[in-house]
Amino acid sequence: MKIIRTANYEDMSQKAAQLMIDKIRQQPDMTLGLATGSTPKGVYAELIKDHNKNGTSYKKITTINLDEYIGLTPSDHNSYRHFMNSELFDHLDILAENTHLPNGAAEDMFKECERYEQLIKDLVDIDLQLLGIGRNGHIGFNEPGTSFKSRTHVVDLAESTRKANARFFNFIEDVPAQAITMGIASILDSREIILLASGSAKAEAIKQLIYGETNEKFPASALKLHPNVTIIADEEALSLV
Ligand code: GLP
Q1: Rounded CA separation 220/201 (Å)
Q2: Domains identified in the chain, total number
Q3: Per-residue confidence (pLDDT) for residue 119, from 0 to 100
Q4: In 3D, which of 217, 150, 155, 134 has the Cα closest to residue 184?
Q5: Distance between CA 173 and CA 177 in Å, rounded?
Q6: CB–CB of 137/216 below 8 Å?
Q7: Which range has the worst mean pLDDT, 26-40, 51-65, 154-168?
Q8: Which of 65, 130, 133 for a ligand 1 pocket mutation test, highest count of atoms within 8 Å of Cβ?
Q9: Is 197 a pocket residue for ligand 1 (Cβ < 6 Å)?
Q10: Residue 241 placed within a domain
Q11: Which pathway does the protein contribute to (predicted)?
Q12: Which run of H or E residues covers position 188?
């Protein structure tokens, strides 16, 4: 794993965005795997800035997101679909039909997992997957204990994850108990992975990722089995490394 140390959140966002922009310019029809959460927001703002200033085009880009809450419709303000539209897609020239997220309101979740996994296969390869990391080492919504062989599946969210994400909701009771997420094997199929981390709340997780054992108790450790992973993290997130 390559580590890029940045001064702060802004610097992390700019460096990650620049890496992505360079690749998009080289390969304008690439497939990007995208993430939600607070961490990638700055990267998305930088991509929008660059699109407006330098005209980087997303007309031929396909995106596929890691996960979605179960029980929220795409128009729900707390859904990841809403997050992606408002934080990124609505501000680019990307075609709506080329942006993919699991449907958390699907009637049959088993079929939805199959549909999504098939989509990942049909899109051939995710060229570049962007990831954040949960404090307990989750990637996407793959909580501790998830098999490294997992494909798109339904998960029960850990109480700590619901608490950590409660800040986006009015009440903790409103945070869904389940989500649909790409599996760890689906994530590892990506050609290249960038993991972002910012702030002291992520320092323990980053320390464990770098120095800890590779096992299913700590989902992000699966990334050590991948040949092309870059961690872009700020001083605070790297303070224990
Ligand atoms: C959620 C998302 C993850 C994300 C994590 C960290 O649980 N499903 O993809 O990496 O939160 O979020 P944040 O960046 O807000 O700390």
Answers
A1: 16
A2: 1
A3: 93
A4: 150
A5: 9
A6: no
A7: 154-168
A8: 133
A9: no
A10: no
A11: Amino-sugar metabolism; N-acetylneuraminate degradation; D-fructose 6-phosphate from N-acetylneuraminate: step 5/5
A12: helix 184-188
- Does residue 238 belong to any structural domain of this protein? no
Helix (H) or strand (E) holding 42: helix 41-54
Question: What does the alpha-carbon distance between residue 189 and residue 129 come to, in Å, rounded to a whole number?
Answer: 10
Pocket test for ligand 1, best of 12, 41, 165, 209 (most atoms within 8 A of CB): 165
User: Could you give the ipTM of this predicted complex?
Assistant: 0.95
Residue with tokens 């950590």: 164
Q: Given the structure tokens 């998830």, which residue do they identify?
A: 146
The CA angle 99-124-97, to the nearest 5 degrees, is 20
- Domain of residue 158, CATH code: 3.40.50.1360
Does a structural domain hold residue 237? Answer: no
pTM, two decimals, is 0.95
DSSP E strands: which ranges in the chain?
2-6, 31-34, 62-65, 67-69, 99-100, 128-131, 153-156, 178-181, 192-197, 229-234
Catalytic residue list: 67, 136, 138, 143
pLDDT of residue 125: 85
Q: What residues make up the domain containing 89?
A: 2-198+211-229
Residue-averaged pLDDT of the chain: 96
**By alpha-carbon position, which residue is closest to atom 5 of ligand 1?**
134
Is 162 part of any domain?
Answer: yes
